[in-house]
């Protein structure tokens, strides 16, 4: 009996020992897996946004050699600012002896016209005309000035006064109101049709509260389609990327996603969305009051990708590089490879006011101190200081860097006027300088002074 009991006790010990070893090994394996998974999760959260990660379906074919609509740059801060034309040159005008004279690049004269009775609110060079948006007695006019003849081809009064944008594309121009009503005209000013975007078919009408929460933004015309976004602007709301034909037909949702928990966490409310199509992606910059969330959506299916965890103020896409300016106190300039494998700060310790990409270089201006710097895109080296000029904006055209000089005294005065809803004289313009790649000034466009007698009351 004693032998049987001893044998039974020994078997129990053996079983317990084996089970204990198995359990111990299992505990170590589970614990190890949990640690690895936690680290992977932390790394993933550090790199990716918290927006809904539902798989993106195949959306559209690759945009290659695309034709893109050209904005008639209305509502400029000053009507004589530089505006990029459809040929990538920059155009501007000056008033001389009761005439308006248009120039491009380094003071190359283009054409002139008699000074109109109304105010010029915007313009752009498109095909063989300078297109103008003017206002006279609270009415909006669109006109086409032929570059070759110097004659107005037509001048057309637009029915709606609340025009937000005018976009030229192929043989038409599109007038978009602040309520996203679009009227299409041919290039002779004949009205073709009118339609609205963002008016979804629902079982109940939009309430006033809903209209405040929902914002529709016309984005671009690309390859014969109008692209726009419909956003529920409250924290954690949805965004729809939509498109339709040039006549407003076949309005369709390309993709809809829910913006993530980080919006709710920081109580962010969407103020605007910037969208562009480049290579195989739709790039989206969601702009909040003090934050910009930057990500992209693949055209051929996959997942939404957070491009950077940094707050982004503006971006530029060139070749296989992404350049973005950080928003906030740091205000660094970053270069990111298109595969998102490399993200590098290229401004080093400088705080950046603005930047522009030109040929094989990136040029940026220091925010607080004077100075323009150059960084090579090919094989990164430390920023090279070109000049001590203090600037508020940079352009690149015809192989030259163009600097809009910072006019500090004027800017302070303009800010004071803005507090009383007063603007500067419409022909006011700061000084511009043209620089070569070595930073030498090769041309100067003198400023047009602030004139108290011509201040503009909004």
Q: Could you describe the 3D structure shown?
A:
It is a single chain. The protein is built from four helices and 37 strands. The protein starts with a helix and ends with a strand. The strands form ten sheets. It has a five-stranded antiparallel beta sheet, with no helix packed on it. The protein has a four-stranded antiparallel beta sheet with strand order 3-4-5-6, with no helix packed on it. A four-stranded antiparallel beta sheet has the order 7-8-9-10, with no helix packed on it. Helix content is 15%, strand content 46%. Mean pLDDT is 82; it is low at 1-49. The protein is mainly beta.
Provide keyphrases for this structure.
single chain; 458 residues; mainly beta; five-stranded antiparallel beta sheet; four-stranded antiparallel beta sheet; globular
Topology readout:
Elements (H helix, E strand, L loop, with lengths): L1 H46 L8 E3 L11 E3 L10 E2 L5 E7 L2 E6 L3 E7 L4 E8 L2 E8 L2 E8 L5 E6 L5 E7 L2 E6 L3 E6 L4 E6 L11 H6 E9 L2 E8 L5 E8 L6 E7 L2 H5 L6 E7 L2 E7 L4 E7 L1 E3 L2 E2 L5 E7 L2 E6 L6 E5 L5 E3 L6 E7 L2 E6 L5 E5 L7 E4 L3 E7 L2 E6 L2 H11 L3 E2 L8 E4 L5 E5 L10 E2 L1
